[in-house]
Amino acid sequence: MSYATIRSHLEMLRDSIRTQGYRNAIQEVVQPGDRVLDFGCGTGVLSIFAERAGASKVYALDRSTMLYAAEEIFAKNRYKNIEPIFGEGDTVELPGQVDIIVSEWMGHFLFAERMLTSLITLRDKFLRPGGKIIPEYCSLHLGLVVTKEVYEELAFLRTHPYGIDYSPVSEWSFNEVGIHRFRAEDLHPDTICLGGFSLTTVRETPDLLEGKITPKEATVVYGMCGWFEAQLSPNVRLSTSPFAPATHWYHFHFPFVRPLEVAAGETIEIEVEIVPQRGQNGYTWRASTANEYRDGESLEQPG
Q1: Which residues are catalytic?
Q2: 292 Cβ neighbours under 8 A, 6+ residues apart
Q3: Do 81 and 57 form a contact (C-beta atoms < 8 A)?
Q4: H-type alpha helices, the chain
Q5: Which DSSP symbol is given to 162?
Q6: What is the value of pTM for the model shown?
Q7: Tens-place pLDDT, residues 188-220
Q8: Positive or negative, the Cα torsion across 128, 133, 136, 139?
């Protein structure tokens, strides 16, 4: 959905875990007199939270025409310390440095919306030394999908529906990363963290995530599920995990072409490659797994 339409913003505002989490973090971090940059302000709710917390100046930056609606919302609610700025994060200019940058830049599995690069540019240009960023730390996590439901949905073309042989394309759905809202019961309880980073020091979007997972119990795996967690402030943590209450974010689904049988105590090595799409505002995701069998063979599964 376009961020120039109200529907996407309505979905985010209705996500109380997301919105109240940011409100609590802003109240914890912003001090009276602080100058704040709200990157990707949308309808301006985080800018309003920042002024309520005592910010003397808030720059509400967005590249979507929703900024004009945000400007009217600021005026209607008599917030006078918020200055709307229309522009791109990579090229915009501000009057001076800020004490805090707040941004809800995270897409599905964190990087889907490709906003981190612009946030890093803004940080390096405008965040004062010792300044803070909300969120302050982000991490990526992955679990093994052990229920058949989504796998069987992807296998529909293998069943010769309507008496048609779809074999030329029947495997395609297993080689495409998708989004899905998984439940805790869909995953094996053993999960891993693929890595994390501080928003004040990260230099670029990582191009490779690696990890190992060793299930304590034997299982059959039908794919992998990815999610993110964000430490918004010292005392406020946001999780999009299937084991946590649902948010508006979906989980990344890396399907397997065929089920993978895993023995108890067997280690699965995982790689997730993140490749920028040329000329587009997104990434190509490539996932693979390898597990060691007793005879020493390995199995590679593209996702």
Answers
A1: 104, 113
A2: 266, 267, 298
A3: yes
A4: 6-14, 16-29, 45-52, 66-76, 116-126, 149-154
A5: G
A6: 0.92
A7: 999 999 999 999 999 999 999 999 999 999 999
A8: negative
